[in-house]
Automatic annotation (TrEMBL):
Belongs to the oxygen-dependent FAD-linked oxidoreductase family. InterPro entries: BBE, FAD-bd_PCMH, FAD-bd_PCMH-like_sf, FAD-bd_PCMH_sub1, FAD-bd_PCMH_sub2, Oxid_FAD_bind_N. Pfam families: BBE, FAD_binding_4. This is FAD-binding Berberine family protein. Keywords: Cell wall, Disulfide bond, FAD, Flavoprotein, Glycoprotein, Nucleotide-binding, Oxidoreductase, Secreted, Signal. Residues 115-289 form the FAD-binding PCMH-type domain. PANTHER family: OS08G0158400 PROTEIN. Its main location: secreted. It is found in: Secreted, Cell wall. Its cofactor is FAD. GO terms for molecular function: FAD binding; oxidoreductase activity.
Length: 575
């Protein structure tokens, strides 16, 4: 009863700054003179601290002019689970830790400028009840919620908006429960891929999981958009190996696969899960890996016959045994023969699920132009191969995979494409000239084939299956801050993307959701939401877009779960 009385006194209906300041001073006087001990003697000290935290949080929001934001904060506090107080998970701009929490998962410095819009609140959820409270309270006033797991969204859509918004940050929810006997694991979406790989390796040297090569990527966004890595030719995408999930819907209800239904379960495995709700955890199916795998990196410039080697790569990479993945990275470097001149370098980076003897036999027979030798090959464990692919010295302790912070951050722009026919050799030579002209943008070619060509395009929302030879990632990094520099380097990336038009998929020109690209279209989530969403949706999902829209319309008709490239609802009749 005493708690209720104090709550009513401290958080009355007026919420004026004067009342809160008076309440705060009054509470301090009560504490100083021991009056609280008399009136709240039955409470534990922690309860008093929690009460103080609640008051301070309300005071901290007084700098905002939007009463809806104050109401939202109060709603969060009112809906706090007694056993899991939400106050300690809330950060407002007045909190000394706000900036560090916000910046902790920003992976693109373009969205860490002084002029970047900031959330009015960050909720670092520590329990499912915090997520449920956030959904229930934000829906009341239709407040924009951004969901962030690892912060690797290339366009910052998980932590930036042009309207008042808050961030639901999942990084505290990162438990990983590996069950080797059943070859499964429950992984919360705040975990990183590196944490997943490390926890699997703790339990087994012959199991892994097909996901990305960057260990600091968050599980939530990666799995929600498809998730691919260097074992996709053997085992498919991450989403092809998910068997269950815990999902919180627009009404704040928690579901597993059975209760959510197969439509939602289908949608949250590659359709942009943040468009449908909040995924708390995924149950993944572990895959078998040999105790010894082999990796290599071989680089060739144009002066070292790179054109012929690249030409052979594009004719064989998708047809190699599914145990073998050979990525091609193209960039511009200084020529070793002519001072001051530039050349194109082709780097071939590989993971082979087997020993070097068998790898060399395959390469000599199927890809002889590369001239792979025994000295190029490194035999290692699967988990240590992750270090190799991340450019971490392979002898480093694998516990480094638990580090959630990248070694360095840059300003960046990314785009994507799909290739269905080899590029003629004359086309390659033309492309080299264009790349040397632009100098900065790189191209990453990731081969398909194998298991990727066997899984139907409708099995998950990710549609890019049979018929694709490889996927392109356009990579541009820079270190200068400001809009002028950003416009310059983004312009270079767009130019290279334009140059590639003749060589890539058409009608639609396909793109990969995990390589988020705002150039493909922006949804303002207004009356034209469906038409705006269709522009980018067809490129990301092709024919699967229509099914995603139907599911979205049914499970979130009010379009609460939205962002600048989310799945839209069907338009109302008459609109």
């Amino acid at each position: 009863m005493t708690c209720i009385v104090f709550k009513r006194f401290l958080f009355g209906t007026t919420h004026s700054s004067l009342n809160l300041k008076f309440s705060y001073k009054f509470l301090l006087h009560l504490l100083a003179f021991g009056i609280i001990q008399k009136t709240m003697g039955s409470l534990r000290p922690a309860a008093v601290v929690s009460l103080l935290s609640v008051l301070l949080l309300s005071i901290s929001l007084q700098g905002t002019s939007d009463s809806a934001q104050e109401t939202f904060l109060q709603c969060l506090l009112d809906n706090s689970h007694p056993s899991y107080p939400i106050s300690e998970a809330i950060f407002t701009p007045q909190n000394p830790s706000y900036s560090s929490v916000l910046q902790s998962s920003i992976r693109n410095l373009r969205f860490n400028e002084t002029f970047t819009p900031k959330p009015f609140l960050i909720l670092t959820a520590k329990h499912e009840s915090h997520i449920q409270a956030a959904i229930v309270c934000a829906r009341k006033d239709n407040i924009q919620m951004k969901i962030r797991s690892g912060g690797h969204d290339y366009e910052g859509l998980s932590y930036v908006a042009t309207v008042p918004f808050f961030v639901l940050d999942m990084f505290n929810l990162r438990s990983i429960d590996v069950d080797v006997a059943n070859e499964t694991a429950w992984v919360q979406t705040g975990a990183t891929l590196g944490e997943v790989y490390y926890r699997i390796s703790e339990k087994s040297k012959t199991h892994g999981f097909p996901a990305g090569v960057c260990p600091t990527v968050g599980v939530g966004g990666h799995f929600g958009g498809g998730g691919y890595g260097n074992m996709m030719r053997k085992y498919g995408l991450s989403v092809d190996n998910i068997v269950d999930a815990y999902f919180i819907d627009v009404n704040g209800r928690l579901h597993d696969r059975k209760s959510m239904g197969e439509d939602i379960f289908w949608a949250i495995r590659g359709g942009g899960a943040a468009s449908f709700g909040v995924v708390l955890a995924y149950k993944i199916k572990l895959v078998r890996v040999p105790e010894t795998v082999t990796v290599f990196r071989v680089e060739k410039t144009l002066e070292e016959n790179a054109t012929d080697i690249v030409d052979q790569w594009q004719h064989v990479a998708d047809k190699l045994p599914e145990d073998l993945f050979v990525r091609l990275v193209l960039d511009v470097v200084n020529s070793s023969r002519n001072t001051g001149e530039k050349t194109v370098r082709a780097a071939f980076i590989s993971l082979f699920l087997g020993d070097s003897e068998r790898l060399l036999s395959i390469m000599n027979e199927r890809f002889p132009a590369l001239g792979l030798t025994q000295s190029d090959c490194i035999e290692t464990s699967w988990v240590q191969s992750v270090l190799f692919w991340t450019n971490i010295p392979i002898e480093t302790e694998t516990a480094i995979l638990l580090d959630r912070t990248p070694s360095s951050l840059v300003f960046l722009k990314r785009k994507s494409d799909y290739v269905k026919k080899p590029i003629p050799k004359a086309g390659l030579e033309w492309l080299w000239k264009r790349m040397i002209e632009l100098q900065v943008p790189q191209l990453l070619f990731n081969p398909y084939g194998g298991r990727m060509a066997e899984i139907p395009s409708t099995a998950t929302p990710f549609p890019h299956r049979a018929g694709n030879l490889w996927k392109i990632q356009y990579v541009t990094n820079w270190n200068e801050a400001g809009t002028e520099a950003a416009d310059h380097y983004i312009g270079l990336t767009r130019k290279l993307h334009g140059y590639m038009t003749r060589f890539v998929s058409k009608n639609p020109r396909e793109a990969f959701l995990n390589y988020r690209d705002i150039d493909l279209g922006v949804n303002h989530n207004g009356r034209q939401s469906y038409m705006e969403g269709r522009v980018y949706g067809i490129k990301y999902f092709k024919g699967n877009f229509n099914r995603l829209v139907q599911i979205k319309t049914r499970v979130d008709p009010g379009n609460f779960f939205r962002n600048e490239q989310s799945i839209p609802t069907l338009p109302y009749k008459g609109n």
